Amino acid sequence: MQANFAILFGTTYKIINMIVYLGVIPATWLYMLSRKTTKYINLISLLGVVGVFFIPNFSQFCNFAFDKCVVFLNDVASLINSDYIRVSVYICVYGVLLVYLILLPICYSKKTTKKVLIVLAIIMAVYLLLIYPNLKSFVQFLMDKNLPVQKFFNPLN
Question: What is the mean pLDDT of residues 57-63?
């Protein structure tokens, strides 16, 4: 999905990835926390997200940060005797989801939390049953066909 955003915004997968994982996702966590604490967290979060765009050589910063994330994920993969793709799914999908699951009941009513959890359970079930087992073969299929999407699925691009 982030590769599609990269094409849409005329930027790279690495930049979109860093904006999402280092900006948007933490900002949503801060927003959720601000519902139970002070609204000033929203202002701090907004200033942080906007401030990132004023980093000199933003694209170079994103490339550097992405490459460091890849190194980290590869190191964790070798530590637990796994591979990059599995570890990135564990940390970047399940880890992020876990934080949302922890924040949901803290920040929202039981009724809202229950609805969100049911929808998430359905989405995760579909993901685990249909997409995750076939993800590697699907990506390999796309790469074998020499489609232009190759560069988006290579984490070291």
Answer: 88
H helices present in 53-83, as ranges: 58-79
Q: Is residue 157 part of a domain?
A: no
- Asked, for residue 62, whether it belongs to a domain, the answer is yes
Rounded Cα–Cα distance for residues 127 and 122 (Å): 9
Counted domains in the chain:
1
The predicted structure's pLDDT at residue 68: 94
Mean of pLDDT values over 114-127? 83
d(CA 20, CA 24): 5
Structural domain range at position 52: 2-152
pTM of the model: 0.67
